[in-house]
Each structure stands twice: as C-alpha cells, then as structure tokens.
Automatic annotation (TrEMBL):
GO terms for molecular function: electron transfer activity; heme binding. Keywords: Signal. Residues 1-23 form the signal peptide. This is Sulfite:cytochrome C oxidoreductase subunit B. The keyword Protease does not apply. Gene3D superfamilies: Cytochrome c-like domain. The keyword Coiled coil does not apply.
Amino acid sequence: MRRLLFSATILFGTALLPFMLHADTPFVLRSVSVDLPDSDRTFPGGASADAINNNCLACHSVGMVLNQPALSKAAWAAEVNKMIAVYKAPVDPGDVEAIVDYLTRLKGTSP
C-alpha cells in the first residue's frame, strides 16, 4: 500500500511539474500570525473555581464539563486521576482535591 501511495504521489507530482514551471507567479510559502479569540467562559465562581479554571480549561470547555452526567466523588476523583495518568494532564497535585470537590458540588450525586 505504501509503495502504491508513493508511486501515485511521484506520478502526480511529475504530471504537475510542467504547469508549475510555467506559472505566471511563483508559489511562495510564508508564515502568518493568527490571533484567536480568548474564551470568556469560565466555571462559575465558588470555592475551588480557580483550581478547575487554571487546570482544566486548556483541554475542556466549560460547556463540555457542565453537560457530563452527575458522578459520585469517587468517580470524579477517578476521572481527574485518569486525566493525569493516562492523558498526562499537567494538573498541579495540590489542586486535585479542590478540583474533585468542585466537580462533586457542581455535578455530583447524592450518597
């Protein structure tokens, strides 16, 4: 399969070569800067909101987290620890308990 893909790429490039050599203007690649808007959505205020805003918003939108099912404190702890262990989330170890407590208050189940 790789040989076929490689051969097709070479063949296609060779077929385009005459057109590229006779182009009116040369094709030039250049770098550009793009400013993306900052998100103004953060987790609602309350105890531990800073911990979740500072650690979780790099990968997750507020809407995505707020639409998750209600979980127990143990389940939220498992989710946060999975993000750290499996996905290498750069969560400050001192913030883990605050994040779990916040998620439990916001989207937790009754024991």
